[in-house]
Amino acid sequence: MISGERFSVIYRLISADEQEARQKAWAICLEQTVEFPEELVPAGMIRDDIVGRIEALAPISAGVYQAVISYAVETTANEFTQLLNVVFGNISIKPGIRVERLALPQSLLSQYCGPRFGREGLRELLGVSGRPLLFTALKPMGLSPAQLADMAYKCAMGGIDIIKDDHGLTNQVFAPFRERVTACVAAVEKANARTGRQTIYVPNITAPANEVVARAKLAKTLGAKGVMLSPAITGLAVMKFLADDAEFGLPVISHPAFQGSYVTAHDNGISHFALFGQITRLAGADIVIYPNFGGRFSFSREECQDIARGTCVNMGQIKPIFPSPGGGMSLDRIGELMAVYGNEVIFLVGGGLFKHGPDLEENCRYFLDMVSNFSNTGDN
Amino acid sequence: MISGERFSVIYRLISADEQEARQKAWAICLEQTVEFPEELVPAGMIRDDIVGRIEALAPISAGVYQAVISYAVETTANEFTQLLNVVFGNISIKPGIRVERLALPQSLLSQYCGPRFGREGLRELLGVSGRPLLFTALKPMGLSPAQLADMAYKCAMGGIDIIKDDHGLTNQVFAPFRERVTACVAAVEKANARTGRQTIYVPNITAPANEVVARAKLAKTLGAKGVMLSPAITGLAVMKFLADDAEFGLPVISHPAFQGSYVTAHDNGISHFALFGQITRLAGADIVIYPNFGGRFSFSREECQDIARGTCVNMGQIKPIFPSPGGGMSLDRIGELMAVYGNEVIFLVGGGLFKHGPDLEENCRYFLDMVSNFSNTGDN
């Protein structure tokens, strides 16, 4: 029943000394598997293989330790949901434990499809190489489908590659889903016919459990070329289900709404690298949106760089995905940000695109020019 | 388009002074609705009604403020998922903001079914009144269906009211779902036939997105009388979907795995009261499991009392549910815990039940006697 294949999780532990750290690591080994008092754990397979194993433990700074704990792949039952549970189920409730990184063997990775498009597939879909991709959001809530579509048209004419709904647009009376998607798809197609570009419109499909997949399929039927959802609201597994569905087959974008509590406390939760990088890739997103450093949120430059690293760290056949920093981005920072992220990034500029000047289409052109100039490809 | 009906969220803000607190509150009003620079928010309905409103702001201690912010009910589109997004979507990423409490008007509450059974319905189903209910978990992972069923039989013979899977048992090769449920249902039915009790077996249905509902229905077909899931893993909305399904119609139990990060940091996240009480009730759970104070987790007695309050605070037609403290409970604490929780509680004792003595059935009887004696009803 036990193959001997194990995966590892690297945890960061807050502990006064090595003895306490070792106790904490051992408590994790029990808690995440048998959840049973140590003295009662049956001998044999359960004690030898199912209980987690401390593979390494080392101090990394005063009062901070790193533990590498391995688990039998069979504990996850080939289920993404149960993988999340083994990695961080009950211990999410214990302070002073943070998931830093997953180390998954090929035998486990091969159970996952990962993102369908990834970086290369998205570039092909959009027909853009050699520069960062441009991304914006339609808002504010309260506008009509016609007003949002007008905005989408201008953004597409101005050269934005991906135009999404604001993540707060679901099915409000102001702009019901079907009407909004129909109008925005038509607007972007009209612009594409003029520009020759392959700009895509991506509606937000975050919705109640019985409606997410239906909205995704409706969006596709109406001509949308991708979907966005907030996996902490719908469930990460719902995102994975959509991404895995070959018949659906559109790019999937992950939005961080309701997900922040996993990363806002330095000593608890999940690292930016693991959550927005590794776990989001396992869950099949092609693009991961997160708040950029220096905007109106509080991620540091280092945390954002960790996310970018997590989006492309080797995970077997699981493709690299695009990091998409947003959240208070302004156009005058493009040069600085390209120095940090390079070309393999999608800049999500929302409000900043509107603030730049009175003509939205002109603002988009300026955004594209900036990015094209800094990437020195001449390709715009 | 705007009814004038608004709901409120009470936030706890970490701010140096009142001016900073007001700025933070106003930033929430914008972030959670229009997500747009203030100066660009269109006049009229959007600025007047859709943008959140600061209804009150007051200091509660040094550097800590409480803000009451109201939102138009229309922003939620009658969707639980979008309600979560308005309450704590993007601001989950901003440190120093905690959701303390929801204040929902009848017009919004009336959109929600809430728990199907609630406290009264569960007592009726189980045929137990006048004392706390007894709850245990089958474990450890690695046991076979026959071994787990044997354990279930002994627990049911000993008088446990609800016997659940450990939350880590999903569909592992050691005890596949169908075989496990079949065996445990039969064992509990056999015991019930002898004792005359109405003990129920509740399998864990936490599973990938396309399998949760299927497992819930399979469990029912196989004779299970309730289901448990970890909503932070499946998505809270998935739990609500099941609870709302009249044809399914079984009690639903919420497990806190992967949910801890919302509550482990005092200055971020969601309060115990709102998350385990109010939000879990909106999501339809009849029982909410959480780690008790004094066990191997770190919730304080006050936080646990807040949870208990949240499970029964007035929410219109949404029924009160059972708080179910677990996580390192030992039998010798029953008296102390009944002084804290009273009779309207479900004691979840896992490992402690096994540790008490070598005879599991006897241990269960002892547990029941303790609870019955302390509740002074003579009803056991």
TrEMBL record, chains A, B:
* The UniProt record lists the keyword Transport: no
Tell me, what is one Gene Ontology molecular-function annotation carried by this entry? ribulose-bisphosphate carboxylase activity
Superkingdom of origin: Bacteria
Q: What class of enzyme is it?
A: isomerase
InterPro entries, alphabetized:
RuBisCO (IPR033966), RuBisCO_lsu_C (IPR000685), RuBisCO_lsu_C_sf (IPR036376), RuBisCO_lsu_N_sf (IPR036422)
Identify this protein by name.
2,3-diketo-5-methylthiopentyl-1-phosphate enolase
Keyword Isomerase (UniProt): yes
Q: Which UniProt keywords apply?
A: Isomerase
GO biological process annotations for this chain's record?
carbon fixation
Q: Where is the Ribulose bisphosphate carboxylase large subunit C-terminal domain?
A: 122-356
EC number of the protein: 5.3.2.5
